Amino acid sequence: MKRKKAKKRGFGWVIALILVILIASFAGWMAVNASILHIMRATVYIPDLPSAFEGKTILYASDIDLGGINTPARAADAFVRLQALQPDILLLGGDYTAPTLMDLLNQSDPAHYASNTGTDRADFFHYVSDFSAPLGRYMIASPEDRLTSDIRAQAEDAGLRLLDSDRAEIVSGGDRLWLVGLGADISGISKLAGQFRSGDTVVAVTSSPNQFPALMTTEAADSGHWVDLALAGHTHGGQIRVFGRSILSMDTIEQQFPYGWNRETGVPMLVTSGMGCEGVNMRLNTQAEVWLITLTSRTTA
Fold it and tell me: Which option is the CATH number for 38-296: 3.60.21, 1.10.10, 3.40.190, 1.10.3470?
């Protein structure tokens, strides 16, 4: 009888060990999945695109989320490899620092982890300071980045143009394209929209899809639409999705625009799943990515 109980206990330990190995292997697979950076490509049709910008490219990278194994050096190494894409414009979409798992569980104030990882952010900006983009390097700061004099100074030192409810004129061959950056504060979006006419070509980048409704409902000075392409991040595409549901908390608008392209308004809008992760560097049913976007005014036959 005792021998049978001993065998049962031994068998139980074997099952427990197998389960631990399976769980560890699955976690390892999710970590590997998070570390593989995918280069996504899209050609965006903009009817009023000036001829000088035909075929010009934007490298859009959002949610760097430095933290854990995602060190500044590792993120910088990714941009060294991305340089081979030879983009005309580099655009960084915010969320440069990431909360730890404990920050998320404790619902910590973003100012806490943003300040703790300020050095990491400065190091990353330093590493990408020599990234070549002939038409300029631009960035926004998300609410989690806590836009301060420090981040402004870090951006300036790295040669990055920080856009905070601001616009930048990009000139090529006598033509111009406008880049608008909406970060933490969008209270002046109507005033910003009024600086454009519907014939202008405007690419808008926001910290999250929460700004999409404001972008689509404000009007240019001549009462027409003013945005030709809208870009956003922040959602991580859900990061870890199980049965179609994300472990990350997403509000109503983020659930409406969790990931990918949306053209319901007639304006192409992209939500990227970003480069990094929140809490833990793991992904399931999502991917780490950057986008190389080619602009065109030509329709395909």
Answer: 3.60.21
> The whole model's pTM is what?
0.89
Beta strands in 12-125 (DSSP E): 37-45, 57-61, 89-92
2: left (phi over 0), alpha (psi -120 to 50) or beta: alpha
Report which of 266, 277, 228, 238 is spatially closest to residue 100, judged by C-alpha positions: 277
pLDDT in tens, 280-295: 889 999 999 999 999 9
Question: In the numeric block, which tokens belong to residue 273?
Answer: 């799943």
Nearest alpha carbon to residue 31 among 281, 241, 295:
281
End-to-end CA distance of the chain: 80
Q: What is the DSSP track for 235-283?
A: SGGGSBEETTEESS---HHHHHS-SEEE-TTSS-EEE---SS-SBSS--
Closest CA to 215 of 287, 268, 281: 268
**What are the domain boundaries of the chain?**
1-35, 38-296
Q: Percent of the chain scored above 90 by pLDDT? A: 54
